[in-house]
Amino acid sequence: MDVKDARARHEVLGLTGEDLLRMHYSMLLARRVDERSWILNRQGKAPFVISCQGQEAAQVGAVYGMRPGYDYLYPYYRDLAMTLFLGQSPREQLLSVMGKREDPNSGGRQMPGHFSARELNIVTASAPVGVQYPQATGTALAFKVRGEDGVVLVCGGEASTSGGDWHEAMNFAGIHDLPVVFLVQNNAYAISVPEKAQVAGSIAGRAQGYGFPGVEVDGMDVLAVYEAARGRSSGRGGGGPTLIEAKTYRITAHSSDDDDRRYREREEIEAWRLKDPIPRFERYLEEIGVLDAEAREEVDARIRAEVAEASRSAEEAPPPEPEDALGPVYAGR
Amino acid sequence: MATKSLLQAIGEGLAEEMRSDESVMILGEDVGRAGGVFRVTQGLQDEFGGGRVLDAPLAESLIVGAAIGLSVNGMRPVAEIQFGDFITPAFDQIVNEAARFHYRSNGAWSCPITIRAPYGAVHGGGLYHSQSIEAWFCNTPGLKVVAPTYPADAKGMLKSAIRDPNPVLFLEHKRTYRLLKEDVPDEDYEVPIGEARVHRIGDDITVVSYGFMLHTVLEVAEGLSEAHGVEAEVVEPRTLYPLDRETILRSAKKTGKFLVVVEANLTGSVAGEISAVVAREAFEWLDAPVMRLGAPDVPAAPFARPMMDAFVPDAAKIERAMLELARY
Ligand SMILES: Cc1ncc(C[n+]2csc(CCOP(=O)(O)OP(=O)(O)O)c2C)c(N)n1
Ligand SMILES: [Mg+2]
């Protein structure tokens, strides 16, 4: 940004107050749905929870420019804020958390966080870390072969950059100048393994070796991530590949099956909580006069009510029938 | 109608599908200007350009993963794995990904990709250019595994594979590439996936086989007929997963004597699955124990000829097994 530019940060990025409120809403909605999942887990209604908490800014910032149903998203298991932003509902997420028959991701076949929405071009995700990267390059290649301007956003944690799939995909994207954005949400841990035991050098810096730009951004700052992704994940003037390493933090344990007291200090989490991306963005919104404390409370109350209703309704939804397990194995011609 | 080798028939099938459907494309190592190390894709890059016949980097997981992603976005890719032995880096993408897209998304996504892979022992191939890899993939619901042996079947099944909305692993035995030529129709036709073929009618024993072994079995069957009056019925599964149980069982029940001959390591092979089906479903028709013949349980066919020949079941071993069964 030009130092003499007197405009607010979001104005420089071409964002309106309405855009900002939409970003804020998506982040807060994801947080509240996530919190609800943990409650359902403690109540014995959800066998497994994997969280987006702390990463909402990275997710909303990156996905904000995407055209749902045109561009493609290859999410990873923490990308709840992305899938909600693109059009999945809190009820749908909670159906998935409780393994209900109507779960739109998998009909109760997969753990929560294994997103899928054909109509939104959210490609079915699985558990093996890193497999999504080669697939994302293929999807980007299809756009290129047909001369279309679509863009693919593919996400993972920092540990997903350690395996071959990530490097194979980075190389291929570089060779063919593919319209793909690699978003690495570096949240400092892979279950218990700290970044220093996972990552040599800099993840962002590796892009240079593959011949395209890589940037490291503050992943707790939704505008910074938006700025890095803008014009790339939107397909408007993007072109070739980009790597974004968003430095963020996993506020919860790895999952509901993990006890993170075994490997990290409470003080560390508390220090990161002060950088929580949601209150941080709210301070900005208040500063620029887009959202005051009262309006914020009102939004939050609305979201809480929406999530409570979604949860109630999802709880009442029927479980799958046992025989649902038997298919569909093959698609018909 | 012209006579074609298996290799030519597959190449022609690819060209025809690319001509009739713009979404069909090829990616793999050396498939472009070189036309593949076996020349299956020869001339295709000249005709369709580098965008649709793409020389991929040497990265099998990427090749299959990118094929999956292409199929997600409206394309019908054919991925070539240069040698079946090098499919292992792509195992995750095939087994955990392509084969599960449909089930795990409750039918929302499907994955119409074809993965071509030359397999099987060939002189000079050694441990890593020889393996029979089919068993690794034949307990993967969601995947189809086909292994045609004859040129006309191969072309028709390739078309079926490309048009199928599911991932299909298309196996080509290297030793059958140029072994013989037969009439291959010029007009568009499909040979359906999931249907076995009866090559020879007989009443005395049933032999199921595929790939190079099938050719040897058919030769031996002629010899046994002339020398011993033993009439073998020879059945080729063509599709190894899911199996055409009906055709196999019909023949087993007819002859009451059943043998499977494969080039793969015997333990855990497709022959085991076929045998189990027959042992259970045709039990009351059987006059002899279900028999299997395959390679010994050593890693793969060795490089030096005497060792390779010891590994691959030859005509003498096959004849012994067929006679033993006939006389049981
Ligand atoms: C190939 C593979 N190996 C191991 C696992 C088990 N596992 C799941 S998540 C995870 C850590 C991933 O860390 P990171 O990529 O940094 O993502 P984060 O969970 O921190 O967001 C591991 C080891 C897996 N799912 N896939
Ligand atoms: Mg991590």
UniProtKB/TrEMBL annotation, chain B:
Name the UniProt record assigns to this protein: Alpha-ketoacid dehydrogenase subunit beta
Domain of life assignment: Bacteria
Lineage, opening ranks: Bacteria, Bacillati, Actinomycetota, Rubrobacteria, Rubrobacterales
InterPro entries: THDP-binding (IPR029061), Transketo_C/PFOR_II (IPR009014), Transketolase-like_Pyr-bd (IPR005475), Transketolase_C (IPR033248)
Stored PANTHER family: PYRUVATE DEHYDROGENASE E1 COMPONENT BETA SUBUNIT (PTHR43257), PYRUVATE DEHYDROGENASE E1 COMPONENT SUBUNIT BETA (PTHR43257:SF2)
Co-factor requirement: thiamine diphosphate
Cross-referenced Gene3D superfamilies: 3.40.50.920, 3.40.50.970
Keywords, in A-Z order: Oxidoreductase, Thiamine pyrophosphate
Pfam families in the cross-refs: Transket_pyr (PF02779), Transketolase_C (PF02780)
Molecular-function GO terms, alphabetical: magnesium ion binding; oxidoreductase activity
Domain Transketolase-like pyrimidine-binding: 4-179
Ranges in a coiled coil: none
